[in-house]
Amino acid sequence: MRLLLVEDTEDVADAIVASFERRGDAVDHVSTVASAEDVIAVQDYDVMILDIGLPDGCGTDILNFARSAGSKTPILMLTARSDIEDRVSALDKGADDYLVKPFDLRELHARVRAMLRRQDPDRSGVIEFGDIVFDPSGLTVEIAGSPLPLARREMSLLEILLVNRERVVPKDAVFERMFSFNDEQVNVNAVELYVGRLRKKLAKSRVSIRTLRGLGYQLVDDA
């Protein structure tokens, strides 16, 4: 999953980024309205998390920009304001949810999963495919009832393939969901490395990853 975080309070941003990266998600972090609009213009996201109070404007300006451009990406607003009018205004302008500071990171993750679940039931609930059971909330994977330990990038790759199971996912699309702008030293060929690692770990499963030359990757049930 790839997220955009717009937050100008450094310690809050660092904590949010670290919490999502620990589970293998890619996070692009910016701190201004202008920077947010620049990246939204060139990159698609699974989720946007926008602070309302920013140095050069308001998070609702970014919300308006995204919705005016036709983006249906789930958007959660972060606010230090307790005024109900601010929350109602954000929801009326197209936000999917809001969270009042200070908040527990576990609640933030739960709300993100809930937004994704409303958009696509397979994105956040437990996914069962073949003999694999994947729980994105608990970050656990089982093959035929036995735990399968995965590194965070492998977990991210598996989630991408499971969400798109039996569909062909282009290599570039996998790369965009696994890595953020901060991963400057990584190129698209890194996807092949992680596919190879995950394929080995799925060797005892009846589920496999097919490589379709020039097209991408497909997760299939070989039963």
Provide the fold topology:
Elements: E1 2-6, H1 10-21, E2 26-30, H2 33-40, E3 47-51, E4 53-54, E5 57-58, H3 59-68, E6 75-79, H4 84-92, E7 97-100, H5 105-119, H6 121-124, E8 127-129, E9 132-135, E10 140-143, E11 146-147, H7 152-163, E12 168-169, H8 171-178, H9 190-201, E13 207-212, E14 216-221
Parallel strand pairs: 1-2, 1-3, 3-6, 6-7
Antiparallel strand pairs: 4-5, 8-9, 9-10, 10-11, 12-14, 13-14
Helix pairs in contact: 2-3, 7-9
Describe this structure in words.
- The chain has two domains: 2-121, Response regulator (Rossmann fold); 126-221, Arc Repressor Mutant, subunit A.
- It starts with a strand and ends with a strand.
- The chain has helices spanning 10-21, 33-40, 59-68, 84-92, 105-119, 121-124, 152-163, 171-178, 190-201; strands at residues 2-6, 26-30, 47-51, 53-54, 57-58, 75-79, 97-100, 127-129, 132-135, 140-143, 146-147, 168-169, 207-212, 216-221.
- The protein is of the alpha/beta class.
- A hairpin with a 2-residue loop joins strand 4 (53-54) and strand 5.
- The mean pLDDT is 91.
- The strands form four sheets. A five-stranded parallel beta sheet has the order 2-1-3-6-7, sandwiched between helices. A four-stranded antiparallel beta sheet has the order 8-9-10-11. It has a three-stranded antiparallel beta sheet with strand order 12-14-13.
